C-alpha cells in the first residue's frame, strides 16, 4: 500500500478493535478518530506515513505542539488517545519501538464537582414547568440523572423496554455494554410515570422505543440536556459549570452520607473499579481502608 495510507489503515484497525472487541460507543469512537486524525496530520507533515516510522523525538514534538492553544484537559486527552493507539499496535507487533508518550507533562489536577445540598438541588429541579409537555420532560430527565445516578448518555438512550415500573427500577446499559439494574426513588418514579402518561404521548410524533423524546419526537441530544440544565441552574441562582455530572456526583455523595456501602455505590454508578468510585465521591484512601477493615472479617 502507499506509505501515506498506512497510518490510515492502522487507525482504522484500532477503531475497529475498539468497536468490535471493546464495545466502545459511537461517541468514544468519534473522539478517538478526531484525536488520531490530528496526530496523523502532524506526523504526515514531517514525512511520516506510518506509526511504525515514529521515533521518540517525534512524540515529544507532537506533545509540545499540543501545549499551545489547547486546554490542558484537551491536550491530555489527545495524548492519551495516541498512547492507547500505539499500545494497541505494539501488542500486535506493528507499533514503533519507542517510549510511549505520557500525558504527565500536561496533566492537570483532577477537579471534582461539589455535591449540591438537597435544598439547592430541589431549586434546580423545580425550574422546569411541569404543566407543559417539554417542561415535564425536562424535569423527568433531570430526576432520572439524579435519582438513578445516570450518565447523560445513559439517560437519553433509555428505552421503554428497560423500565420496570412495577418494581421501580431501570436496566441501564453503560460503558462497554455492561448492564446494571438501578432502583428509582419514589419521587423519581412518580415523575417518570407522570411524564409517560401526560407528556410523552404529546411529544411522540412517530413510533419510538426511547423514553425521553425531544420536542419533535426525536432522540434528545446530550448537548441539549447540558444546555437545559445550565439554564435551570442559572435561573436557580447557581454559578456556571453545573452539568449532568454534578447531579450524578450529588447522587453518589448523598448515598454515601446516608450510609450506603461503597461497593453498592460502585455497582449503582456502573464503575468497573472501586478506585473510580473512591475518587468520584471524594473519599480519601484512608477512608476506603477504614471501611474495608471494618467490613472484612479477616482485616
Structure summary:
57% of the residues lie in helices and 4% in strands.
Low-pLDDT segments:
none
Strand content: under 5%
Overall 3D shape: globular
Note the run of SSEs as H and E: HHHHHHHEEEHHHHHH
- Radius of gyration, taken over Cα atoms and rounded to an integer in Å: 22 Å
Helix content: 55-70%
What is the mean pLDDT? 85
Distance between the termini: 59 Å
The largest sheet is: 3 strands, antiparallel
- Secondary-structure class: mainly alpha
Strand order within the widest beta sheet: 1-2-3
Tally of helical segments: 13
Per DSSP E runs of 2 or more residues, the count of β-strands stands at 3
Description:
Helix 1 packs antiparallel against helix 2, helix 6 crosses helix 10 and helix 11 packs across helix 12. The model has no long low-confidence stretch (mean pLDDT 85). The chain has a 3-stranded antiparallel β-sheet, with no helix packed on it. It is mainly alpha-helical and 299 residues long. It contains 13 helices and 3 strands. It starts with a helix and ends with a helix.
Amino acid at each position: 500500500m502507499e506509505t501515506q495510507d498506512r497510518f490510515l489503515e492502522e487507525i482504522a484497525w484500532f477503531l475497529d478493535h475498539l468497536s468490535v472487541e471493546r464495545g466502545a460507543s459511537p461517541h468514544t469512537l468519534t473522539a478517538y478518530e478526531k484525536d488520531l486524525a490530528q496526530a496523523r496530520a502532524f506526523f504526515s507533515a514531517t514525512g511520516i506515513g506510518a506509526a511504525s516510522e515514529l521515533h521518540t523525538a517525534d512524540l515529544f514534538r507532537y506533545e509540545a505542539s499540543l501545549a499551545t492553544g489547547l486546554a490542558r484537559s484537551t491536550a491530555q486527552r489527545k495524548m492519551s488517545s495516541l498512547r492507547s493507539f500505539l499500545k494497541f499496535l505494539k501488542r500486535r507487533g506493528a507499533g514503533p519501538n519507542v517510549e510511549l508518550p505520557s500525558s504527565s507533562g500536561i496533566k492537570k489536577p483532577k477537579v471534582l464537582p461539589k455535591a449540591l445540598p438537597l435544598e439547592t438541588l430541589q431549586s434546580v429541579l423545580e425550574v422546569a414547568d411541569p404543566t407543559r409537555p417539554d417542561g415535564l420532560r425536562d424535569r423527568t430527565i433531570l430526576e432520572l440523572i439524579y435519582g438513578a445516578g445516570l450518565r447523560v448518555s445513559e439517560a437519553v438512550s433509555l428505552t421503554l423496554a428497560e423500565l420496570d415500573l412495577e418494581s421501580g427500577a431501570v436496566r441501564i446499559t453503560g460503558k462497554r455494554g455492561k448492564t446494571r439494574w438501578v432502583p428509582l426513588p419514589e419521587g423519581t418514579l412518580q415523575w417518570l410515570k407522570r411524564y409517560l402518561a401526560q407528556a410523552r404521548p404529546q411529544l411522540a410524533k412517530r413510533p419510538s422505543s426511547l423514553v425521553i423524546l425531544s420536542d419533535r419526537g426525536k432522540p434528545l441530544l446530550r448537548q441539549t440536556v447540558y444546555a437545559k440544565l445550565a439554564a435551570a441552574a442559572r435561573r436557580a441562582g447557581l454559578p456556571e459549570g453545573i452539568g449532568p455530572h454534578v447531579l450524578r456526583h450529588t447522587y453518589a455523595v448523598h448515598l454515601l452520607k446516608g450510609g450506603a456501602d461503597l461497593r453498592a455505590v460502585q455497582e449503582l454508578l456502573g464503575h468497573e473499579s472501586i478506585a473510580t468510585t473512591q475518587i468520584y465521591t471524594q473519599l480519601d484512601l484512608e477512608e476506603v481502608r477504614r471501611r474495608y477493615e471494618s467490613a472484612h472479617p479477616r482485616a
